[in-house]
Amino acid sequence: MTLTRREFTRLSALGIAASVAPSLPAQSSSTKTGYAIIGLGRIADHFMAGILNTSNSRVAALVSGHRDKAERIAAQYGVPSESIYSYEKFDEIAKNKDVQAVYVALPNSMHAEYTIRAAKAGKHVLCEKPMSTSVADAEAMIAACKAANVKLMIAYRCHYEPTNLKAVQLIRSGAIGQVQAIESAFGFPIAAGEWRLNKNLSGGGPLVDVGIYALNACRYLTGEEPAHISAFASVIDHDGRFNTVEENVSWTMKFPSGIVASCNTTYGALMGGYFRVHGPKGWVAADPAFNYDGNRLLASFDGKQLDEPNPARDPYQFTAQADHFSHCIQYGLEPKTPGEEGLRDMRYIAEIYRSAGLTLG
Ligand code: NAD
Description:
The protein has 2 domains: 5-158 and 317-338, Rossmann fold (3-Layer(aba) Sandwich); 162-309, Dihydrodipicolinate Reductase, domain 2.
């Protein structure tokens, strides 16, 4: 599929450009957006592998507390050793002309600090979800990027994932009629010792980590913002893992049209990420919906049954995400999932916790 630049820009505005972006003309490495990867953990591995499949992005620098690990990864991605930074020396990145953007892949409570430092260094920011561990931090991140005139995008990879996009498209087309109700959930049994169980680093439990996928999905599936939220949280396993964060959260949301959504998240059980959307003419689901690959669209309407597994393999979502952000940087466009999108989720998460008698951060 070949697209003109004008067609690409139009698709980009519809949020579906990322899935077709590889057909843009290949760019030389000097015109590729260079990313500094901040935090070389699990998700950074997926993102860097995803970048390799883009035509418009490259890994240009690494920020890590472990020089030996950084040297190893630098060799793999062709990053010069002078472009490896410690956290303490990070601000020197301002002078690095090979770096136009950063990818913040640190524990949640560090997102605000490194986003703001990157903005002050004049770099665009792609920040992992959850955006922050407080509403005030999310607001400060947006303000810092605006003041520095750099772009801020939150890494909501499902916005760039064909199964999720097709579900949205089917719902908007009226295939199942006026949506009435949604169920969505995501959770996994967490191992002891994870930073995710330390509220100072995570800001919360499964809600901020994976429940956020269900929350965000209910918003893009309906195209509405929740007007009312009500929630319960609990800890069942008193084995030392849940001294500072919750184990389970169950919440309901009512949207302005009257759509009701019922969501669950847990760190105590394998709760495959899925959603199911019900209307008078049928239903649309994705199960799984939020995995790195193997997502599957299911639907029933008009006497038709859809069962469409997405054959794309990891790291395709990370490729699409990097491709989209680099495209926005290169052509002066607003990302589909800007800081404001992350801020909205942080406000709803704060409200869910408040309703459940807990606090965010
Ligand atoms: P991880 O533990 O694998 O990696 C975290 C990195 O941060 C490590 O390189 C670690 O050395 C570094 N770090 C720096 N200071 C640290 C500190 N004080 N404590 C712990 N680590 C420190 O974590 P991860 O799973 O890669 O998660 C990183 C971020 O990415 C989180 O915000 C998480 O929510 C997000 N994430 C997103 C997705 C997604 O699909 N978009 C998936 C997983 C994680």
